[in-house]
Amino acid sequence: MVERNELQVWAAVEAIRQRRPVVHNITNFVVMNTTANALLALGASPVMAHAEEEMADMVDIASALVINLGTLSKVWVSAMFKAAERAATRGIPIVLDPVGAGASRYRTDTACELATATPPTIIRGNASEIMALCGDHTRTKGVDSTEASRDALAAAHTLHASLGSVVCVSGETDYIVGGQKTFRIANGHPMMTRVTGLGCTATALCGAFAAVTLDPAQAAAQAMAVMGIAGEMAAEKAEGPGTLQLHFLDALYRLTKADVSQRLRLEC
Amino acid sequence: MVERNELQVWAAVEAIRQRRPVVHNITNFVVMNTTANALLALGASPVMAHAEEEMADMVDIASALVINLGTLSKVWVSAMFKAAERAATRGIPIVLDPVGAGASRYRTDTACELATATPPTIIRGNASEIMALCGDHTRTKGVDSTEASRDALAAAHTLHASLGSVVCVSGETDYIVGGQKTFRIANGHPMMTRVTGLGCTATALCGAFAAVTLDPAQAAAQAMAVMGIAGEMAAEKAEGPGTLQLHFLDALYRLTKADVSQRLRLEC
Amino acid sequence: MVERNELQVWAAVEAIRQRRPVVHNITNFVVMNTTANALLALGASPVMAHAEEEMADMVDIASALVINLGTLSKVWVSAMFKAAERAATRGIPIVLDPVGAGASRYRTDTACELATATPPTIIRGNASEIMALCGDHTRTKGVDSTEASRDALAAAHTLHASLGSVVCVSGETDYIVGGQKTFRIANGHPMMTRVTGLGCTATALCGAFAAVTLDPAQAAAQAMAVMGIAGEMAAEKAEGPGTLQLHFLDALYRLTKADVSQRLRLEC
After folding, report:
1. Among partner residues A106, A195, A241, which is closest to B51 by beta-carbon distance?
2. Contact A47 C194 (CB under 8 A)
3. Measured between CB atoms, which of B46, B50, B250 is closest to A71?
4. How far is CA A154 from CA A129, A206, B86, in A?
5. Interchain contact, A34 vs B33, CB within 8 Å
6. Which of C24, C61, C195 is most worth mutating to test chain B (most B CB atoms within 10 A of its CB)?
7. Which residues of chain B are at the A interface, by a Cβ-Cβ cutoff of 8 Å?
8. In angstroms, rounded to a whole number, what is the distance separating the alpha carbons of residues A37 and C242?
9. Distance, in angstroms, between A53 CA and closest chain B CA?
């Protein structure tokens, strides 16, 4: 067990609350409301916009860009490329969520093309998605992973080696590959898998943390830690996945230093 | 009153929880989050995708297809046709929700064309929508029905006769027309009409039940029964439509055999 | 302090609950569910539709039209123009929410073009958005205002003078400019800014109130008063922005005459 404050999770939460970084999201229809609310509850300032006509303007006021393929289509993908290019030019962090990669060739191809054209700062996905990005055409069951996160570790290292991106594989244990060491976060609660969009929310929070933390591996680990801790706090109050999602937002809003230090389960 | 377990509601719920069928939804922007969460809470595995480029791939991993016209547009309708055709080829159940049929000619026409091109396994709508599908241009008030569900029974029988589809008319009493007998489900709570997307959620659950129950009339009746029972359980805890929607998801997640057997109000 | 019942807030709430006016919304993906639920909880009948093919039909059954630029794109903007033109012809109130005006040139231009082509009955925005509509290119931080509502009063008067629209600037104090006097509403709670879409919800409620109240300045003030009062009631029960949004819907649903008379903080 390393020093728990190595990640400086709490300092990053405070930085988000104080600076309120603008996080520009091109994300999917299912989770837009959820991820905007999570960013607001944490203290960031979400923007959701996808028109090509305003991509440059929106990226220019943002401190991080989050691209999520959840309900991709030709026009939106075109805006994603434009936004990523601009973000790279400006030097702000880019977070990519290859939702459902492996479930359709269109998703896998789009995710690979986006990642190759403009290597993301952070890629966050479940095991099936990360493996699909590496050309491992394992069985995929829709947007839910069929593999344990540990099984995608080799793929994560391969992706990191080829793109330079920090790769976060989420699951019962979250792995963050790409820094000097691999972080493992064991926070979270099984009921979180029964709420749509919590994976996408993790990706959005990666954007917020990357906006205030220079090291992208640390930023991803901070985001996954805060997700998991808030999820645990919510699960203790929830009677099911319906109430869980609201207590989760409340927990992000009310999170204290004590919550973080008492609950953080990090190894590296 | 027939044997309550005739519908085998509980066995179907258990089958969904064990098999986690993938339900592919092409649905509307308003309810995507709600219906995905309801499917997850029940135990199914929702996919929401609409790009034509991936329709075949997505239908191929699904055990049921749900098409909902709520916020239709030309591009999406094109994907709906493509998905329905593929689902028919694969022989998986197709559920159609003609949201707002009767409110605009475009909706009515699209719903009729879809239903004719690839007759759905189940059509679920409110009375106004079902009547509009039969060419009965009654008064429609937006997406809310102006008619009692009973008044659409003749239209439901006509639709079933012409298309072969099971027709579910939802309302204070839900009618399922198309099997050897007509099921009537009297579960539910009036406050449910004050939450957007619960009709669409019923349609999505029809998809989940049709994925595990061979007889589509029984599947539709199971879905409506579970909707109504979970709605009643939620209404007992709720202080209004806001809290109702979360307790509803919790109730789907926590539903027990005893809840079903004590609350089911079915006649046929 | 004027007569509190000058606004006849309660009479308007009762009128909405009795008449259930259809409010047609062309709004953004992030808030569609939220605003539909708020309209339903209040007692109105929301329609969300954007296909050009059905714009005329949908406007024809509506008692008010709400246009919100939150996630605009070329196709949707085209539908907005069509809907506004039809609404003007029919003489039903048009409410415009220029979300993010000032954040991108595309938004600012679109908002100005829409407002000029068919002057809205009511324009509701935060201070930055209202100032941007007047050509005041102040600093904008995404979709959140960087200015206090009071600072946009001059811009609101200019807009009203040029377009004839009632202009509502929301913030800690809401200002409604355009009638014989300027209304100031001091209801609300700071936690409301941490829930996405409550500004858009205020706009949607303006549509519902404008459907039953002839004077658009009064309608806008009624809407802002009910928003603020329901928000206060919700904040007293909430533990954070997650639970706030549900208690807010419950409060709209349960609102009583006593709530309004005890809490209304109106000056003019």
Report:
1. A106
2. no
3. B50
4. 13, 22, 36
5. yes
6. C61
7. 20, 22, 24, 29, 32-33, 36-37, 40-41, 45-51, 53-54, 57-58, 61-62, 75, 245-254
8. 8
9. 20
Q: For C196, which of A33, A51, A250 is closest by C-beta distance?
A: A33
Our CA-based measurement puts residue C194 at a distance from the nearest CA of chain A, in whole angstroms, of: 5
| C-alpha to C-alpha distance for A173 and C137, rounded to whole angstroms | 47
Nearest CB partner across the interface for C241, out of A22, A41, A62: A41
Closest CA to C37 of C25, C46, C26: C46
DSSP B90-120: HT--EEEE-TTBTTBHHHHHHHHHHHHHS--
CATH number assigned to the domain comprising residue C255: 3.40.1190.20
Q: Which helix (H) or strand (E) holds B164?
A: none
B-chain residues near A142 (CB < 8 A): 22, 24, 45-47, 61-62
Torsion of CA A224, A227, A232, A237, to 10 degrees: 180
pLDDT tens, chain C, 268 aa long: 445 556 799 999 999 999 999 999 999 999 999 999 999 999 999 999 999 999 999 999 999 999 999 999 999 999 999 999 999 999 999 999 999 999 999 999 999 999 999 999 999 999 999 999 988 765 555 666 666 888 899 999 999 999 999 999 999 999 999 978 899 999 999 999 999 999 999 999 999 999 999 999 999 999 999 999 999 999 999 999 999 999 999 999 999 999 999 999 998 8
Chains touching C (at least 3 CB pairs under 8 A) are A, B
Could you identify the residue written with the tokens 């958005």? C129
Mark yes or no for CB contact B30/C49 under 8 Å: no
- Radius of gyration for the alpha carbons in chain C, expressed in angstroms and rounded: 17
CB-CB contact of C102 with C145 (8 Å): no
Q: How many domains does chain C have?
A: 1
- The three-point CA angle B37-B42-B44 to 5° equals 80
pLDDT tens-digit map of A194-237: 999 999 999 999 999 999 999 999 999 999 999 999 999 999 99
CA angle B102/B104/B109 to nearest 5° reads: 75
Number of residues that make up chain A: 268
CA dihedral of residues A94, A99, A101, A104 (deg, nearest 10): -130
| Contact list, C28 vs chain A (CB under 8 Å) | 48
- CA distance, residue A158 to nearest chain C CA (Å): 35
Count B/C contacts: CB-CB distance under 8 Å: 104
Contacting residues for B181 by C-beta, under 8 A, at least 6 apart: B268
Domain that holds residue A33: 2-267
Torsional sign, CA C134, C138, C143, C145: negative
Q: What is the Rg, in whole angstroms, of the alpha carbon atoms belonging to chain A? A: 17
